[in-house]
Amino acid sequence: MTTPDMSWGAHAPGMAPMPGWQVPGLQAPGVQAPGMTPPSVPRQPTAGSAATRSGAFTPEAARQDIPVLQRPVNGRPVVWLDNGATTQKPRQVIETLAAYYATANSNIHRGAHTLAREATEMYEGGRAAVAGFLGAPSPDTIVFTRGTTEAVNLVAQSWGRANLGPGDEILVSTLEHHSNIVPWQMIAKERRARVVPIPLLPDGSIDQDAYADLLSFRTQLVAISHASNVLGTVPPVKEMTALAHRYNAKVLVDGAQAVAHFPVDVQDLDSDFYVFSGHKLYAPTGIGAMYGKPEVLAAMPPWQGGGNMIDQVEFGRVTYAPVPHCFEAGTGHISGVVGLKAAIDWLTSFGREAVAAYETALLGHAQQALAAVPGLTVLGSAAEKIAVLTFTLAGQDPMTVARRLDQDGIAVRAGHHCAQPSLRHYGLEAATRASLALYNTAEEVDQLAAALTQMQAQAAV
Ligand code: PMP
């Protein structure tokens, strides 16, 4: 019998080859990922590097890679403006997942066999890719989680339980997602610490004077978003972190809405923790990551027990695996990590600065287009903001607005967006949100504005 060709460009034996079965995100088995042994951090491709596409970024180039954007919804091409909830996936990610399961599937770390070794290399290659993506000093500073929510809970349950005590304070900005509020409330209650909200200004930015006043030596941790999922606000995280560090407080940055939209460098920010979800970054659901400073991670106890996170287990005693493995109990989301690396490769191939510049221009266009819709008010006008437009339409219920847009194939979200304090800052319980990504176009934004204008015209008759 001849050995089946299991190279990454090939289809699995017995499987029909998939169209365009090229899997740029995967390493060929046996071929060492750059800098994998010993692990090191591959730098992100920069403009002009081999991994960067030639020419200026265009949304059309990105759209060509996203199969779901080809499907109609209610007879019209789908207009996906719900990127804040989740992003659509490029075929490079979809095909990488299929190829992983077709040719490489194995559990990791435990096996002495070929597939286990290859899967382990891919998993650890994914860790190195995330480290490079975030500007982290080493892959060992990256812990895989299910996403942002699980990462915040990890920090709250591990670091929080070990470090918080009665009277301690956790400062949490008012624009946080519930996943960066509730885990702090839970651990604060247990440790008899206090969660203290940092107020917002009318434009949706964080009140920096109030923040400076709230900081004290009681402050143990500051939890801030790198970009708000409702208001789009991008707070001055670096400056806020420097201020917190003067009080020896740790800073956790929620990058869920940031990482897909602008470059992040955790060492430049001096973050103690930086967390994000893969699915908002063109990667699969169920995978995300937490960066932690090496010295902070080294002092943290494990939070979940089980396989993979131990060194020795006896009934009288247990010792743990080194960081980051001691924080990853059980079988990880191996294919998710492989898909996350493919998504990072895909996004960075466009050049991060070029994507950020395009999205900023698209935000400007959207702000103008929506300003012309009668009765429309956009929430949040901070000077630094991502392309998130949460709005109310006079006389219209937010959910009805979303359903009417869906009739035209336009997907937006309505409700409280898991950030009730942000909305209540404006006296609201619900609003409609359009959140843009690199594959959205000015034409799509114009379609949204036209549909809303028509809705208002119909309501007036
Ligand atoms: N933080 C922010 C700012 C978010 O937008 C979200 C998702 N909407 C989360 C945290 C939670 O992310 P996940 O559900 O992927 O854990």
**Overall mean pLDDT:** 90
CATH class of the largest domain: Alpha Beta
Helix content: 25-40%
By CATH, the topology of the largest domain is Aspartate Aminotransferase, domain 2
* Oligomeric category: single chain
CATH superfamily of the largest domain: Type I PLP-dependent aspartate aminotransferase-like (Major domain)
Which residues sit in consecutive blocks of at least 5 with pLDDT less than 50?
A: 1-50
The counted number of beta strands is 17
Give the CA-CA distance, first to last residue.
Answer: 76 Å
Strand content: 15-25%
Question: In order across it, which strands form the biggest sheet?
Answer: 4-10-9-8-7-5-6
Largest sheet: 7 strands, mixed
- When the domains are counted, the total is 2
Instruction: Categorize the overall geometry.
Output: globular
Radius of gyration, in Å, reads: 23 Å
CATH-scheme architecture of the largest domain: 3-Layer(aba) Sandwich
Per DSSP, the total helix count is 14
Small molecules held by this entry: 4'-deoxy-4'-aminopyridoxal-5'-phosphate
What class would the helix/strand composition place it in? alpha/beta
